[in-house]
Amino acid sequence: MEPTVSAFQLLLAGDPALLAVVRLSLIVSMSAVGVATLIGVPVGASLALTHFPGRTVVVVVFNALMGLPPVVAGLAVFLLLSRSGPLGSLGLLFTPPAMVCAQVVLVTPIIAALTRQTIEDLWEEYCDELTAMNVGMVRRVGTLIWDGRFSLITIVLAGFGRAAAEVGAIIIVGGNIEGFTRTMTTAIALETSKGDLPLAIGLGVILIAIVVLVNALAWTVGRAAQRYAG
Amino acid sequence: MRAPGTELPICLSDVTVETHGVTILDRITLALGSGPPTVLIGPNGSGKTTLLRIAMGLILPSAGTVTWGGRESVAPVRRAIVFQHPVMLRRTAAENLRYALKVSGRLPRKMYDSRIAELLSLVGLSEFGDRPARTMSGGEKRRLALARALAGDPAVLFLDEPSASLDPAAAKVVEDVIRTVAARNIKVVMSTHDLGSARRLAGDIIFMHRGRVVETGAASTFFNEPHSDEAKIFIRGDLLV
Ligand SMILES: Nc1ncnc2c1ncn2[C@@H]1O[C@H](COP(=O)(O)OP(=O)(O)O)[C@@H](O)[C@H]1O
Ligand SMILES: [Mg+2]
To answer: How far does residue A126's CA lie from ligand 1's centre (Å)?
Structure first.
């Protein structure tokens, strides 16, 4: 397997092009997950604790959006940011911020929907006790988020997994520009089609390592939850 | 020692509870005043838990009214309840108590630690402060819930089957705490289907059957000269269906 050997050589040599691509991938996905968490957790939590007409529809829409195809998210953000689009004047298309936007669109529904489920289950369990203790609304939300923290961390990591692995959205709004908007997934797509297998495989290995790491982290967090919280 | 505050008497007037067309409580009228423990007895399904939840203010009656100290809809600041299956927060035993102290806000922060130690020792859980509460056994959890209920300094304490499915030693701890609590002038209202426990603790009895209050009165009168046939059957230990 000649290409695999070359891939590891690139990895070990710390090839600058390869490192730049890895770095951009992590920055984009981590920023997107950060923003998606700031939006998704409060939205999911309030959805869990409130009742209003049409709530079921909102819940179903969020659940459905969890499976939003990345290319569709990318297309939507592309239309928003393209020169003739509503946000075209910002000039963000084919820049890393545009890629963050697309991944936010992709990840926020996942975090919101899973948060809603987690907080709702927890609320069902705690409802009687917290009501009997006369716990106010603000502390109620705080308590549920705190006591659900291990599940919420797992949810955020799942969101990161989704962002790090997708290629459809960022290739549309980022354009896969070398040294500027090229990430691991878009590079793998390109290098494979060009026939440069060593780089593609090297990136694939790194991507898998990151995904394994994130899953190991999620598993550790889950174990810790069992141990400390029962 | 403190006055029972504005919670008492708790008056139910013609209270009916229905869900899905089933009548769970049927036109109940009664008053819970200060004094020794009031014990709700009756077979499973007679409506004891539902009556406690109504008196606690956790559910609203389908018909009729509930008042606390003459007022409707009083927030449960001075009332507390220990459920048959208490739910503990995902924290240690001590942190569960600290949470209740914080929520009630009746105590200065610097006194939390000493109060927590006091409450844990009251229910015989001094060694359990650092245990994740949810890993504790059913009996330990019930005792912790009792301590948590007392953390808010209640005037009325509701207990749902406090000694059900506890071994005799654990049941004794719980009954001793109930006596201590009652001696501190906290009104105890508890349910049980255990006649022994009712005899040992009750000042007065509310006997329920099929969502109705069949008989009320002083415990001694109830056990010695029950009026209703249902009560006679129940006290004899025969199956009341
Ligand atoms: N939420 C509910 N929905 C439907 N039926 C209920 C509900 N809560 C209680 N019941 C019914 O009401 C009756 C009385 O219940 P409960 O108050 O728990 O009795 P007890 O505590 O005396 O055993 C039972 O037949 C029970 O099945
Ligand atoms: Mg019951």
So the answer is: 20
Q: Which atom of ligand 1 is closest in space to residue B161's alpha carbon?
A: 21
Taking only the tens place, the pLDDT of each residue in A27-48 is 999 999 999 999 999 999 999 9
Contact residues on chain A for B77, CB-CB shorter than 8 A: 134
List residues near ligand 1 (CB under 6 A): B 19, 22, 24, 42, 44-50
Which pTM value belongs to this model? 0.87
Ordered by where they begin, the domains of chain A are 2-112+147-229 (1.10.3720.10)
Pick the residue whose CA is nearest to atom 16 on ligand 1.
B47
Q: What's the average model confidence in pLDDT over B126-136?
A: 94
Q: What is the whole-number distance in angstroms between the Cα of residue A154 and the centre of ligand 2?
A: 37
A126 touches chain B (CB under 8 A): yes
Please identify, by atom number, the ligand 1 atom nearest to the C-alpha of residue B193.
22
What interface predicted TM-score (ipTM) does this complex get?
0.93
In this complex, is the C-beta atom of A153 within 8 Å of any C-beta atom belonging to chain B?
no
CA B24 to chain centre: 19
User: What is the CB-side half-sphere exposure of residue B114 using CA atoms within 13 A?
Assistant: 5
Residue A26: CB partners within 8 Å, gap ≥ 6? A164, A210
Task: Please state, as a whole number, how many other Cβ atoms lie within 10 Å of the Cβ of residue A211.
Answer: 14
Question: Which pairing describes strands B156-160 and B79-82: parallel, antiparallel, or unpaired?
Answer: parallel
Instruction: Report the alpha-carbon angle B235-B236-B237, nearest 5.
Output: 85
Mutate to test the interface with B, among A133, A140, A146, A149 (most CBs of B within 10 A): A133
CB A191 within 8 A of CB A197: yes
Q: How far is the CA of B48 from the centre of ligand 2 (A)?
A: 6
Q: What is the pLDDT of residue B19?
A: 94
pLDDT mean over B135-157:
94
CA A26 to chain CA mean position, Å: 11
Q: Give A230's pLDDT tier (boundaries 50, 70, 90).
A: low
Q: How far apart are CA B168 and CA B155, in angstroms?
A: 28
The model's pLDDT over A169-215, given as tens digits with 9 standing for 90+, comes to: 999 999 999 989 999 999 999 989 999 888 888 889 889 998 898 88
